[in-house]
Design brief:
- By secondary structure, the chain is mostly helical.
- The protein folds into two domains: 59 residues, no CATH class; 82 residues, Orthogonal Bundle (Arc Repressor Mutant, subunit A), CATH 1.10.10.
- Helix content is 41%, strand content 7%.
- It is globular.
- 23% of the residues are buried.
Length: 151
């Protein structure tokens, strides 16, 4: 599911199946003041651009996110992680100047509303294990594998 405002993409989520009324309800909960218009042609074009193997470059997309200042700090830091590279929650906490906040960083990573473009899938556990992923551990592994191939 891809949602955008005049500013940019505000939500991108993965679902195995989702019908339009459920998507609209989910978006309305996240953006209560928004007027939602279903535009499958436009969002299909965005998805095709985003996941085209030869030209996949998430930095080409404008984003519109809302979150706490801490969440936004974590999400901005995620944007600095290059395709095909992973980091840990602890390293991310250190990168934002909050070395004792690895758990809070993990919570902020989990609240990321824009899958793939804000690359929360690139954060793994200190042990090297994948850890959790809002859209499923298998999908996280698939995204990491795909990025390694296009890198």
């Amino acid at each position: 599911m891809i949602a955008k405002t005049a500013i940019g993409i505000c939500q991108l989520e993965f679902f195995d199946s989702l019908i339009a009324p459920d998507a609209e309800q989910k978006l309305q909960a996240a953006w209560p003041d928004a007027a939602i218009h279903y535009q499958p042609t436009e969002t299909t074009m965005i998805a095709q651009q985003l996941f085209r193997y030869e030209t996949a470059d998430p930095s080409l997309f404008r984003l519109h996110v809302h979150g706490t200042p801490f969440q936004q700090q974590v999400w901005r830091s995620l944007l600095q992680i290059h395709q095909g590279v992973t980091t840990t929650y602890q390293a991310l906490a250190i990168a934002i100047g909050r070395p004792n906040a690895a758990r809070a960083v993990g919570n902020a990573v989990g609240k990321n509303p824009i899958a793939y473009l804000i690359p929360c899938h690139r954060v793994i556990r200190q042990s090297g294990e994948l850890g959790g992923y809002r859209w499923g551990r298998d999908r996280k592994q698939q995204l990491l594998n795909w990025e390694t191939q296009i890198r």
